[in-house]
Amino acid sequence: MTNIRPDHDFEAFLAQGKFMIQRSQSSGKYVFYPRVAEPVTGARDLEWVEASGKGTVYAVTVIRKREPEQDYNVVLVDLSEGPRMMSRVDGIKPDEVKIGMSVQAKVIEENGRHIVVFVPAEGAAA
Amino acid sequence: MSENAFPRGGTAFVAGATHGIGEAPGYDSLDLAVLASLKALDKAGLKPSDVDGLFVALPTDMFSHLSMAQYMGIQPKVMSNNRTGGSSFQTYAHMAALALAAGECDVALIAYGSNQRTASGKLVSSVRPSIYQEPYKPLSPISSYSLAASRHMYQYGTTREQLAQVAVSARKWANLNPDAFMKGELTVEECLKARMISDPLTKHDCCLVTDGAAAVVMTRADRAKDHARRPAYLLGAGSATTHQEIANMPDLTVTAAVESGKRAYAHAGYGASDMDVVEVYDAFTINTILFLEDLGFCPKGEGGRFVEDGAIVPGGKLPVNTNGGGLSCVHPGMYGLFTMVEAMEQVMGIAGERQVPNVNLALSHGNGGLLSSQATLILGSEDTL
Q1: What would the pLDDT profile of A58-68 be if each residue is shown by its tens digit?
Q2: Are residues B187 and B92 part of one domain?
Q3: How many helices (H) and strands (E) would you count in chain B?
Q4: B179 and B219 housed in the same domain
C-alpha cells in the first residue's frame, strides 16, 4: 500500500515502455501525477494501472525558436481516465496541434530518458 | 467555525514608496528593499526601530526576513517570509491586519526588492520543474500563461487583438507615470507584429524585467492619522490557491481570484461595481482579462471584449493598472506589492498626473506562481468605513 515510491516507480515503468497512472481502490478515481496517497481523501490505497493512452488536447502553445533551432509544441492533455498532464504532440507540425484533437500516448526515449508523448489518434483530423 | 472576525477598517496603510524602478546597478535586492522601506517610514514619521512586524520575500534569499531584520537592526515580534509568489504581499497585508488588530504588533512593514535586471537580465526563479513537466521544455513562466490564453481563446473567442489592447492600455497609463520604465506610444499593430515567444503571447504580452523595490507601512486605524493625512484603510482581504504547476490547474480559464475576491468583498461590504480603481498583477496580458472576469468586473469569457475600445485606458470606464502595471511600469519578479502602493496612492489622492478623481475604493490584486496563488485587498478612504 504505502510502498509506492512515486517518481521512482513511474520512471521504472516508463523504462519498460509502460505509461502507468494510479487509481484509488476505495474511490476508483484515477490520479496523475503519481503520489503516495489520493488527493483530497488522503486514501493510501493507490495502485498502479496502465493508462489507456487515449486523450484530448486541452491547451496548446508553440515555443518559437531562432534558427537553426526548431519550434516545438507543449500541450496539456486530458486523459480519458480523467487526469490532465503536460506533454507534446509528435508526428505533425507544431502549428497543426489544435485544442480538442484526439491523441494517443506513446513512450519514447529522448536524451537518454523515457518520456510520454502523444501522436494524433488514428482517424483524428490533423 | 466561529463568525469571521476580519478587522474591517481596523488597520490602514499609512505610507508607501518605491525605489530603483528600472535599473539600479550596484545594489543588491536587500539594499533596494531597505531603501524603499526607509522612504516609506520617513513619510510616516517612523524609524526602523518602530517596526515590530516585518513581512518580506526577496527572490533569492530563503531567509530574507531574518536578513532584513538584521540589516535594519531590529528584532520584530511578528515576521513572515512566505512563498506564494507575487501574491505574497497581499497575503502579508491580510496577516498583518490580523496581527495588528490582535495587538501582536503595532507597526507592520511590508517590503520587496529585486535587482534581477542588472544582476541576471531575466526573471529569477528558484522553482525547479517536476519530472512530469521538465522533459517538455515549457518556458517558465510564460508557457503556462500561454496555455491559459490558448484555452481562453478557444472557449470564449478571445483574440490576440484583445490581448494587445491590454498592453496598449497599460502603456497609456505608464505615459502618465514619471517612474514608469517603458514609455512612448504602443499600438495594437506593433503588438501583433512583435516577436512571438510562446503562442499566443508575444514579447509585448509579457511583463518587463526590471529592478525595483517597494514598501508599505501599516498601523491600527486608531493611530493611522498620526502618520498619514489621508490613510488608506484595509477593508477586506482574501487569499486562495488552486495549484502549483499549470497541468494541475482545474480550469485554465478560471483562477482562484474568484475565491480571494469573494472573501475580500465580503469583508469589505463592497463589490466590484463600487471600485473606483483596480490594480491587478499583469504579468502577462491574459492576466488582466482573467482577473477582470474573476473579480466580477465582467462576466466569465467577456474579458477580451471588455478591454476593447479603450475601457481600461486613462479616461475609460474603469481605471485599471493606473501606474502602467507590470507590462509597462515595473516588474522586478514579484510585482504584487506595487499594486498595493498604487492602490494606496490613489486612495490617498497623491498619484500625480495619473490620479483618478475622487477615489474612495481601490482593489489591489496579487498573482503568484503560474496563476497558482491569488490574493485580493480592498482599500478605502475614511468615508468608506
Answers
A1: 999 999 999 99
A2: no
A3: 12, 11
A4: no
A 34-73 → B contacts, CB under 8 A: 58-64, 72
Residues B27 and B109 in one domain: yes
pLDDT of residue B125: 67
Q: How do residues B65-80 score in pLDDT, each as one tens digit?
A: 999 999 999 999 999 9
Sorted by sequence, the CB contacts under 8 Å of residue B106 that are 6+ apart come out as: B50, B52, B53, B100, B219, B220, B223
- For chain A, the domain total comes to 2
Residues A116 and A60 in one domain: yes
Cell of B190: 506593433
CATH code where residue B45 lies: 3.40.47.10
Global pTM?
0.97
Mean model confidence pLDDT for chain B: 96
d(CA A48, CA A27): 14
Contact assignment for B136 to A74 by CB distance below 8 Å: yes
> Which residue range forms the structural domain that includes residue A106?
54-120
| B136:A64 CB<8 A | no
Taking CA–CA distances from B200, the nearest residue in chain A reads: A61
Q: What is the CATH number of the domain that holds A79?
A: 2.40.50
Cα three-residue angle B28-B34-B99, rounded to 5 degrees: 130
B242-301 pLDDT, tens digit per residue, is: 999 999 999 999 999 999 999 999 999 999 999 999 999 999 999 999 999 999 999 999
Which three cell numbers mark A124?
483524428
> How many CB atoms within 10 Å of residue B280?
28
Facing residues of B278 across strands? Answer: B320, B363
Residues A26 and A67 both lie in one domain = no
The parent domain of residue B344 ranges over 141-205+236-384
- Residue-level pLDDT at B55: 98
Q: Which three cell numbers stand for residue B187?
A: 499600438
DSSP string, B292-343: HHHTTSS-TT-HHHHHGGGTTSTTSSS-B-TT-IIIII--SS--HHHHHHHH
Q: Which of B225, B222, B217, B230 is nearest to B50 (CA)?
A: B217
- Percent of chain B exceeding pLDDT 70 equals 98
Which of A11, A59, A85 is closest, CB to CB, to B151? A59
Q: Is residue A110 part of a domain?
A: yes
Q: Are residues B219 and B245 in the same domain?
A: no
